[in-house]
Amino acid sequence: MFARNLASLGAQIVAFGIARVDSLHNLVMPLAHPSAGRFGDFGGRYVPETLIPALDELEAAVEEAAGDQAFIAELTGHWKTTIGRPTPITEARRLGAELGLCIWIKREDLCHTGSHKLNNALGQALLARRMGKRRIIAETGAGQHGVAAATVCALFGLECVVYMGEEDVRRLELNVFRMKLLGATVVPVSSGTRTLKDATNEAMRDWVTNVADTHYIVGSCVGPHPYPLMVRSFQKVISFEARAQMLEAVQRLPDACIACVGGGSNAIGFFHHFEKDESVRLIGAEAGGEGVETGKHASPLTAGEPGVLHGSYSYLMQDEDGQILDTHSISAGLDYPGVGPEHSYLRDTGRADYYAVTDNEALGAFVWLARSEGIIPAFESAHAFALLKKLAFENGSTILVNLSGRGDKDMETASRLLNL
Ligand SMILES: *Cc1c(COP(=O)(O)O)cnc(C)c1O
């Protein structure tokens, strides 16, 4: 048994070009946080008493798993054979020539199921199995996280219930069918704006009721500790690969890394291994909707204030009475009034900058990328590409953009909005 684990671990090390076993371990570690899940003032656990034991149990399971080489070998094995990692980086030559920049794209759109979401869902499903929890619940906005959760549940034979706002069920019909085909139960949520926030409320309600046999696979680096840290641990493989790939391809680090920010999981995974590289600017694109000045947007970091939502303290969109404001975005995956606490910390410390990108700017970038590079991005990811034009980068700069997902799910909406 031991010998077999070691052999497969050896294969993983070769696959990822990692020299030592302990650096493979570092790939998903560390999970323990020195200040109990706080990033500066942000994060923490603001949940009903009944959830505390489940969060403690999850935290213990995460730490134990991270120290278990068999778990690491299983996880990284699935990265390769289930997700298709490592995903490549691609030079965007025509975009680069147009803007006088050297542009590279990290291709999370090539992950199985079409986005970075599977990195997280897979890791959490493996943990749920370790904890003996056979029922999985998840919330979803664009349906990408729901599809990822339904996929891993089918893979491991777990029951899967996905909460999705009625508005999103309507605009993302194809992903709803995918989840059902994979064997999941999709529960439409009719409260509030009938989008991601409302689906998350409903999932948390379910969890409080069924916590004994249920694991809640949160879809982004949001929620109470240990979720933000755990989700980052499963997503940071993006920057682990991308950093090494840039050094190999162009023998230097990028001047800037750009990612879109909904809850912030693709961005945090993409930023993480560049955080200590002071020369690398970290830039997030939030959903500016119809424009921040109109109030119809989903940009808590550019236009919100700190408060508590879904179990943690972070920037969010709220009114003077602390009521959560309605959000708007062309992309269901960014249509959320909150953001992961680590992004709030990166914002306040100035390590990362965040900009709001409007629906129109994102739609423009969506067409631009399709026609210049032959890549159709998700609406979410198109927000990141829009910043290439919007921000004036110095001529000749090297920019790495995270393409968090592909645009298949958005074809229906796009065909209605674009008169081609
Ligand atoms: C869900 C999703 C996002 C937004 O979620 P984050 O947690 O901010 O990454 C971005 N892009 C794609 C393609 C998505 O599916």
Structure overview:
The protein is of the alpha/beta class and 420 residues long. Helix content is 46%, strand content 17%. It contains 18 helices and 14 strands. It has a 6-stranded mixed sheet, with helices on both faces. Helix 12 (237-250) packs across helix 13 (265-271) and helix 16 packs across helix 17 (379-390). It starts with a helix and ends with a helix. The structure holds pyridoxal-5'-phosphate (PLP). Pyridoxal-5'-phosphate (PLP) is lined by residues 115, 117, 142, 144-145, 220, 260-267, 333-334, 378, 380-381, 404-405.
The stretches of 5 or more residues where confidence is low (pLDDT under 50) are: 1-25, 28-34
Small ligands present? pyridoxal-5'-phosphate
Overall pLDDT, averaged?
91
* Percentage of β-strand residues: 15-25%
Biggest pleated sheet: 6 strands, mixed
Number-wise, the strands total: 14
Q: What's the helix count? A: 18
**Structural class by secondary-structure content:** alpha/beta
Distance between the termini: 59 Å
> How many whole angstroms does the radius of gyration measure?
20 Å
Q: What is the percent of helical residues?
A: 40-55%
Oligomer: single chain
Which outline best applies?
A: globular
Strand order of the largest sheet: 3-4-14-9-10-13
In short:
The chain is an alpha/beta fold.
SSE layout and pairings?
Elements: H1 2-16, H2 21-28, E1 38-39, E2 42-43, H3 52-66, H4 69-83, E3 89-91, H5 93-99, E4 102-107, H6 117-130, E5 135-140, H7 144-156, E6 159-165, H8 166-171, H9 173-181, E7 185-189, H10 196-210, E8 214-216, H11 227-235, H12 237-250, E9 256-260, H13 265-271, E10 281-289, H14 300-303, E11 305-309, E12 312-316, H15 341-349, E13 352-358, H16 359-373, H17 379-390, E14 398-403, H18 411-417
Helix pairs in contact: 1-4, 4-6, 6-7, 6-11, 7-9, 11-13, 12-13, 16-17
Bound molecules: pyridoxal-5'-phosphate.
